[in-house]
């Protein structure tokens, strides 16, 4: 480029800034807000989606964990040598009664100092217990929430002996172990508590003081995973088989078997499916919002730059005559657009930086290991640069389009609105205007198909979000849909308790639930609970998804999550093996959502007849589901909780995870609606302005102002209604598919809730809105002199 060319570009750029500084700055600010929303949503989506994996990494979550019998030290000693174990920690485990007005039990683990990178909870309040302190306790978040514990609280633990733990199902009287006065010094966060990990953790000093009274052992291991799914699965199978062989030749332990599973669990590979479902919903929602904002923002900014540079088309014609090349004319306008590009980059970077203060949304916030401000500097810097370059690219493209029109402006041609007006009423005039899109040389408009597609995507997001929100709300508000049909559950209920409950007039329904652990795969690497319901009083229904409950031995109803994972349907056969080593082949008669026992995952159980369960187990465990008479649940709980381990139905973790999403669909639908309204306003105003000349010609040829406004109203409606109609259909399908994925992974019924009236009102509401929005510029146009409108066209 010659020096004269560079000086000419600078001169033109300065002239552009003098005449259009404000317009470029405003467009830059709009682009910055759009970029900030897009990148901010990306930052929040990434933080939300990565919360669980980051917590897994920060806590050193173990790859395998297992209960180990306290009375079989050989099994415990061999745990570290099982196949694939790279690192391990073996802790003591205790069951203790928390002294208080109600009967409540908790589990505590402690042991020798563990490896720094294995089973290390994130401290969310307080501090970790000191190694040398035997009276300090780190409480898991679930126990802290359930028991109302805070840092500094003092609690009394009455320890159970091994023999008492083994008699949990038949009763053992008062705890016979030591009584320990403990101080809660911290509250810890883990991907999951309970199971071998227990509810809380203490210190090596506590373990040394109470080792002789431990009710069991807990083993945690880091496995030599390679990243190959098949090889890692084979390694887990060898681990399970080797642990099972370590029991051979040993006397039967007191508490491993039906009551405590001998099969290990694999926390890093057996994550709660509800967590994955929540991550997917949040990710789809946030990225969907970002996509709509990005598309809408590019359209608005692009159209603004097109209009800005179209006003300078005459200047480009002069510049061309003076010898400036196309590249120099475009370069001059790109230089001027640098003001808007800089503003866009600064606003984008600032909004992206501010997004770092937003913690994971919904239920995923409970997995965040790094609370507080978390800026993503790479996204901030890179995002600002990308938005700057995108703005300059849009400026270059719009300047090039305006330059093409300026240099080689085609003849105006003949317009035939008179024939339209004579042959067709305003309805067809409006349709023709909508479908033609570009009517006057020098004007640039979006094709109708692109406009309709953008509207359809936005409306589909609104409809799908509304359906997801309605389905979530119905699930959370209806405990029966996730299997909780009773008011109280009594753990380890005994026959005298059952008889007393059946005779109590405050009890309207009573079901005895017998439980045993079975496996349904040949490798026996996964245990699930099998239930049998014995109705003792009234009627407590079981939630069914499909089919019917088993009526005779040989039949089984599988949990909803089991049905999806094992691909079982009505009429299929499944072979089960009990912890006692007995097998049975059963026919699937139904898919159900049984109420889980002992903290089992939702939708994981099997339902069979009492006779069938007793064929598989010598002594199944028993609990009681109680349905209270109207108004009697509180009094009944207060009475029973003083002498029995009574649990209120509460909300299972899987449903609690989904409940954290309740506000997301509403927020997402509102944001998408705001984007849709802004997009409609811009689309309709631009469409009406593009047809200013046509409207003026219609007026000259005799059309009344009412007919002109009617034609422009049809233009507005024709532009948006097809997109809205298709968007509603697309949203119905997308919402149904999204809810099916969430429900099937959670283990609940997959039928979707369709809010008919809100969805049915979308089309007429948008139609009326488009007519109103289209009428505003039409009325303004009608007030202008026809000659001025013709010159503007």
Automatic annotation (TrEMBL):
<dbReference type="Pfam" id="PF02687">
    <property type="entry name" value="FtsX"/>
</dbReference>
<feature type="transmembrane region" description="Helical">
    <location>
        <begin position="21"/>
        <end position="45"/>
    </location>
</feature>
<dbReference type="InterPro" id="IPR003838">
    <property type="entry name" value="ABC3_permease_C"/>
</dbReference>
<keyword id="KW-0472">Membrane</keyword>
<keyword id="KW-1003">Cell membrane</keyword>
<feature type="transmembrane region" description="Helical">
    <location>
        <begin position="710"/>
        <end position="732"/>
    </location>
</feature>
<protein>
    <recommendedName>
        <fullName>ABC3 transporter permease C-terminal domain-containing protein</fullName>
    </recommendedName>
</protein>
<feature type="transmembrane region" description="Helical">
    <location>
        <begin position="667"/>
        <end position="689"/>
    </location>
</feature>
<keyword id="KW-1133">Transmembrane helix</keyword>
<dbReference type="GO" id="GO:0044874">
    <property type="term" value="P:lipoprotein localization to outer membrane"/>
</dbReference>
<feature type="transmembrane region" description="Helical">
    <location>
        <begin position="284"/>
        <end position="306"/>
    </location>
</feature>
<dbReference type="InterPro" id="IPR051447">
    <property type="entry name" value="Lipoprotein-release_system"/>
</dbReference>
<feature type="transmembrane region" description="Helical">
    <location>
        <begin position="378"/>
        <end position="404"/>
    </location>
</feature>
<keyword id="KW-0812">Transmembrane</keyword>
<feature type="transmembrane region" description="Helical">
    <location>
        <begin position="334"/>
        <end position="358"/>
    </location>
</feature>
<comment type="similarity">
    <text>Belongs to the ABC-4 integral membrane protein family. LolC/E subfamily.</text>
</comment>
<dbReference type="GO" id="GO:0098797">
    <property type="term" value="C:plasma membrane protein complex"/>
</dbReference>
<feature type="transmembrane region" description="Helical">
    <location>
        <begin position="752"/>
        <end position="776"/>
    </location>
</feature>
<feature type="transmembrane region" description="Helical">
    <location>
        <begin position="444"/>
        <end position="468"/>
    </location>
</feature>
<feature type="domain" description="ABC3 transporter permease C-terminal">
    <location>
        <begin position="667"/>
        <end position="785"/>
    </location>
</feature>
């Amino acid at each position: 480029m010659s020096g004269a060319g560079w000086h000419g570009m600078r001169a033109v750029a300065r002239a552009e800034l003098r005449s259009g500084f404000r317009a470029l700055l405003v467009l830059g600010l709009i682009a910055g807000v759009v970029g900030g929303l897009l990148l901010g949503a990306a930052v929040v989506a990434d933080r939300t989606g990565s919360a669980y994996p980051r917590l897994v990494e920060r806590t050193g979550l173990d790859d395998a964990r297992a209960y180990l019998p306290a009375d079989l030290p050989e099994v415990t000693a061999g745990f570290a040598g099982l196949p694939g174990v790279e690192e391990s920690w073996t802790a003591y485990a205790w069951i203790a009664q928390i002294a208080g007005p109600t009967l409540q039990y908790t589990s505590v683990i402690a042991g020798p100092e563990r490896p720094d990178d294995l089973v290390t909870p994130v401290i969310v309040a307080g501090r970790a217990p000191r190694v040398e302190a035997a009276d300090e306790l780190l409480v898991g978040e679930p126990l802290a929430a359930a028991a109302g514990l805070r840092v500094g609280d003092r609690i009394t633990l009455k320890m159970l002996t091994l023999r008492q733990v083994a008699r949990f199902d038949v009763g053992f009287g008062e705890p016979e172990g030591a009584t320990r006065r403990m101080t809660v010094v911290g509250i810890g966060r883990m991907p999951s508590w309970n199971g071998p990990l227990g509810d809380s953790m203490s210190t090596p000093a506590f373990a040394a003081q109470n080792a002789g009274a431990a009710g069991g052992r807990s083993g945690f291991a880091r496995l030599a995973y390679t990243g190959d799914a098949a090889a890692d699965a084979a390694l887990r199978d060898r681990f399970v088989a080797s642990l099972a062989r370590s029991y051979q030749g040993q006397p039967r332990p007191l508490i491993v078997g039906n009551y405590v599973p001998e099969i290990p669990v694999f926390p890093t590979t057996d994550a709660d499916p509800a967590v994955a479902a929540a991550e997917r919903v949040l990710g789809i929602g946030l990225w969907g919002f970002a996509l709509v904002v990005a598309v809408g923002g590019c359209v608005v900014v692009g159209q603004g730059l097109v209009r800005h540079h179209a006003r300078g088309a005459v200047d480009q014609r002069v510049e061309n005559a003076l010898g400036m090349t196309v590249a120099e004319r475009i370069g001059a306008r790109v230089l001027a657009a640098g003001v808007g590009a800089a503003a866009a980059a600064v606003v984008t970077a600032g909004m992206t930086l501010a997004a770092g203060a937003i913690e994971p949304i919904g239920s995923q916030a409970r997995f965040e290991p790094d609370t507080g401000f978390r800026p993503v500097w790479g996204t901030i810097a890179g995002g600002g640069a990308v938005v700057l370059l995108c703005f300059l690219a849009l400026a270059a493209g719009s300047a090039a389009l305006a330059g093409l029109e300026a240099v080689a402006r085609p003849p105006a041609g003949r317009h035939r609105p008179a024939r339209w007006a004579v042959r067709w009423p305003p309805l067809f005039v409006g349709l023709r205007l909508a479908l033609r899109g570009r009517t006057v040389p020098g004007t640039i408009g979006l094709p109708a198909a692109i406009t309709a597609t953008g509207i359809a995507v936005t409306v589909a997001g609104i409809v799908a979000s509304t359906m997801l929100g309605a389905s979530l709300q119905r699930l959370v508000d209806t405990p029966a849909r996730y299997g909780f049909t009773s008011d109280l559950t009594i753990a380890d209920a005994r026959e005298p308790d059952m008889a007393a409950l059946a005779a109590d007039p405050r009890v309207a329904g009573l079901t005895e639930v017998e439980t045993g652990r079975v496996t349904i795969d040949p490798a026996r690497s996964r245990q699930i609970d099998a239930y049998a319901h014995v109705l003792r009083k009234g009627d407590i229904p079981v939630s069914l998804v499909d089919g019917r409950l088993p009526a005779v031995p040989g039949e089984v109803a599988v949990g909803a999550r089991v049905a999806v994972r094992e691909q079982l349907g009505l009429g299929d056969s499944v072979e089960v093996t009990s912890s006692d080593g007995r097998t049975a082949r059963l026919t699937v008669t139904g898919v159900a959502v049984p109420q889980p026992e002992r903290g089992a995952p939702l939708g994981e159980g099997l339902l069979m007849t009492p006779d069938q369960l007793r064929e598989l187990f010598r002594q199944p465990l028993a609990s009681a589901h109680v349905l209270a008479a109207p108004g009697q649940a509180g009094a009944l709980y207060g009475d029973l909780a003083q002498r029995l381990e009574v649990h209120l139905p509460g909300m299972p973790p899987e449903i609690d995870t989904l409940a954290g999403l309740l506000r997301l669909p509403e927020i997402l639908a509102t944001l998408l609606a705001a984007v849709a309204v802004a997009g409609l306003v811009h689309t309709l105003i631009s469409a009406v302005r593009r047809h200013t000349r046509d409207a003026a010609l219609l007026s000259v040829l005799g059309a009344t102002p009412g007919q002109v406004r009617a034609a422009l109203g049809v233009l507005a409606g024709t532009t948006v209604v097809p997109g809205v109609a298709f968007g509603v259909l697309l949203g119905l399908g997308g919402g149904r598919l999204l809810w099916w994925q969430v429900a099937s992974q959670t283990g609940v019924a997959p039928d979707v809730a369709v809010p008919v009236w809100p969805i049915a009102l979308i089309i007429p509401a948008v139609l009326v809105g488009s007519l109103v929005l289209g009428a505003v510029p039409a009325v303004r146009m009608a007030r202008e002199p026809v000659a001025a409108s013709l010159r503007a066209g």
